[in-house]
Amino acid sequence: MNMAFAAEEAAGAEHAANEHTIPTGFEPFERIAEDVEELEDLLLDLSSLCDTEPAKALRKLQVQLKSIVPSVTMIGQVKAGKTSLVNAMIGRPEFLPADVNPWTSVVTSLHLNTPRAKDAPLASFQLFKPEEWDNLVQSGGRLGELARNADADEELQRVNSQILEMREKTRARLGRKFELLLGQRHDFDRIDEDLIQSYVCMGDDPAIALPEDGGAAAQGRFADITKSADIYLDAPHIPTALCLRDTPGVNDTFLMREQITIGALRSSRLCVVVLSAHQALTTTDLAMIRMISNVKSRDLVIFVNRIDELPEPETQIDEIRDSIRATLAEHKGPADAEIVFGSAYWANLAVRSATDALDDAAFEALELYGALTLGEAAEQLGTDDLAWAASGVPALFNALGERLAKGAVEGTLRSVRQQGQNIAQGLMVSTALVSVQLIGDAAAKIDQAVVGARVEEIGARARRDLMDKLDALEHDFGQRVDRVRMRFLDRALETLLQHLDTKGDAAVWNYSADGLRMLLRSSFLVLSKNYAQACQAVYEEAAEGFAATYQTAFQVTAKGFTIAPPDAPKVPPPVTLGATIALDLNTSWWRSLWHRRGSEGRAAHYRKMLEAETAPLLEQLNANHVATIREAAIDTLNAFLDTQSAQLMDIGSKSARTEEDMRSAFGISQAQDRIEMLRSLIDDFLEMEEDLA
Known about the structure:
The chain has 693 residues and is α/β, with parallel strands linked by helices. The chain contains 22 helices and 9 strands. It has helices at residues 27-47, 52-66, 82-89, 130-139, 141-149, 153-174, 178-181, 193-200, 256-266, 286-292, 313-330, 344-351, 360-374, 383-390, 393-405, 408-438, 448-503, 514-553, 588-596, 599-654, 659-665, 668-692; strands spanning 71-76, 107-112, 123-127, 185-188, 226-233, 242-246, 270-276, 300-305, 338-341. Strands 4-3-5-2-6-1-7-8-9 form a 9-stranded mixed beta sheet. The radius of gyration is 29 Å and the shape is globular. The two termini are 35 Å apart.
């Protein structure tokens, strides 16, 4: 098997790296590509039979289909090799720098095989807005907020001194242009190593000067003030479009990374947690555990990296797997998330066709592990192929592809298919109406004003019903989570008083917020379930109303004629609940705070502090999740109503044409042929639904 292909020399448009494609592990992505292509062909065939209004709706569906770019967010431990794994996945070793600044909080989104306009940039870097930067340097970011709520003056002073150091280094590096840069977005029509390293890599030398031409050549110049990076690449080895988000992690000095990683997880359907085989998952990873505990098991894959460094992988892997599952179970994490073992180092050697760099001991370890995982098949592989297969990257791609095929991609395909089928059904009615008029049947004449009034009635009722249902659900949810929070605060205070009674001032009181998070997550899951049911009920009633309008206004008598309602939008996981609060920080300042306060003031002070700390959890849950699903529910309904209304009114307008107009547009045989083709396409849509199911 020849694994390498020549590097693309793109005339300065893209970094000319040693690119390679290894054609294994992508079978689920190939099936996704086939399903998308099949639906594209159906929509193309349908568009050839369309008039003006249905053609507009179909063009939107075709754009939606071409815009399927599922996203996967990568999070991980420090030095677990997350970025090296991403480089191996995209087939470009060392493309992204691994030595990032400890303060850097850049989310790097790699858009692979994504359709874009010809004049669109290949790389875009968004710098922090002035107010975001001010929040860090003036208040100390999230950690400063925690210290302030707790009256931890010493800790706040330490945070502020660190921020001052960072600010001065940044100002020294960027000089007088610093304030002007904040809030900017830098676009480039090229991608190269220097460009990427200037925005996302370490760069602490204040002697670096900003070139007068505004170029970007010095390492790490903008890293401190860069919030996000979007890079567009071709990845010929992946059969579909895919977005990989490489996050900065969750364990930074000011908790900025945590907030940004939470935002990235909210907008992705899949999460890959990268762990080191040497420290698979421990209590030091509690921030990450809290975050992934809110992700469904089927939307999470754990990749244990660096197995090439294990002395006895045949026995250690089972121990590591058991340890991970035990830790997740202890902290109420995903119980049955898939765990993949591998080595980004092996994968990158295979991608570069450089496995001859392995010394005898390392080569023996690769062969041993290959035989352990691949069995006799390992003997048939060359060294590069063996390294790729044993690296775990093919297994990771397979796991991601299977989840995408049954999740985000399947949902989009189902939605597009349903809308395409609805358009075909409408065209059937329209064509049948034309055919009837051509043979002079006056019964086909339609009062368009009546149709318009009926359409308005359906839309108004659906919008009113949806708003009423969402308002009621959100009201109930708000009351429920408020009760949960108050019970938690009461219980915490009760525990504190018991602690003071039994242990006095000497022992530091600690109290876990995991119970609060679990109850809030449970409340959110109830909301999600009720939300889906409410949306589906409204959507189905509207679809039935449109189908009845077809039947009464246009005398549709076809057996089984229906209008398919849209599916309720998917609810993003409540990862905001994983945000760190004061109770999670069992650090020196918490202990010193305890000893600084007298017994009499402790209860009131801690109650006030916990109120201040738990309020943002509820605020973020409402702002980032409840508001988001409300908007999605309304947008889905409006899109459905607009499409169906336009099609019904278009059909009604055809009935007002004169017989001469109709005959100039259609012949009787042509209309009948059109009906047969539409019937065939509807059958194809139904067959595709069965295949997807």
